[in-house]
Amino acid sequence: MYDRRLDAIVAAAELGSFSKAAERLSISTPALVKQVTTFEREFGVVAFERTHTGVRPTAAGASLVEDARKIMGEVAAALWRARNLGGTASVRLGVSLMAPGRNTQALWPQVHELVPDLQLEIVTVGDLYDPKTTVMTRLGAEVDVIQTSYSTVRWGGMCRLLPLFSTPFSIDVLRTSPLAERRRLTVDDLRGRRVRMLRHANDATDHLRRVLKATEGIEVMDVQSFDFALFNDAAESGDVVVTSGAWSGVHPGFVGIELDCGIRVPCFLAYPRDPTPHVRRFVDALAQVIEP
Fold first, then answer.
1. What is the Cα Rg of the chain in Å?
2. Number of C-alpha atoms within 13 angstroms, CB side, residue 220?
3. Domains of the chain: which residue ranges?
4. Rounded distance, CA 250 to CA 248, Å?
5. In the prediction, which pLDDT does 157 show?
6. What span, in angstroms and rounded, lies between the C-alpha atoms of 35 and 242?
7. Crossing angle of helices 29-43/5-15, nearest 10°?
């Protein structure tokens, strides 16, 4: 039997915060903390290190989270197969803190008018950039579609893409920074600063990275994951963080300011290379809705 307390543990590990995890799961923070602590006591496992800046998984907690994600995916896949056999076809949209899929969800009413027999199911997924757990390499298993930017280096050839829109880059700075009052920044404004950015976050980010690396006075720091720990570390050292779209403004201590650099980040609906008929119909309907 699947233990629902694992949802709380996985969410807290991904967000680095009990309060943020509680918000995601639509429960109170004390209720979520109780779920985690009772699980730890019951099974004799310390899943998290608690600090004044948030929580981070212990070695045991990280192992638990990795296995829990697999179990959650298997449960979701089993339910999806059962529902489809029951006559209700659903398309599973993967969402996370960094890939909330807001545009796709906002367009769903119009899509549903074109394919009224389909249902849209929202499924929480883990870090798209963690090679151990990413669903981008196995779309069609736990989830069918994801709204995201795209990295050819990470996922080239592993899925199909429907272009949706593009968004400018932002630079997230501490709210106490002199830059926080600016409405827009240029590359020159970043001279004398250390800029943190996720390596191979998407093709546009790789382009921007090359521009920043070639600009005198800017230090580029590559990071391997995009989470609250990244912002906490940046806050301690006074660094700025390259973001875009839903990534900007996720940390309450930072504010996102648009970067005027002439580069935009394309966003896509990623779906399997060999989609099922109902996923194909969903994609075709969405393409029709966004057609200019």
1. 20
2. 18
3. 1-87, 166-266
4. 6
5. 86
6. 35
7. 110
Question: What per-residue confidence (pLDDT) applies to 33?
Answer: 95
Whose structure tokens read 């006591």? 41
Whether 220 and 213 have beta carbons less than 8 Å apart is answered as yes
Orientation of helix 59-85 relative to helix 5-15, angle to 10° = 120
Q: How many residues does the chain have?
A: 292
Amino acid at 160: R
Mean pLDDT by 10 residues, the chain (292 residues): 85 89 87 94 94 90 88 73 69 89 96 95 85 83 93 92 96 94 96 94 96 97 85 92 90 94 96 93 97 80
For the 166-266 domain, the top CATH level (class) is: alpha beta
Calpha distance 193→171 (Å, rounded): 12
Prediction pTM value: 0.71
CATH of domain 1-87: 1.10.10.10
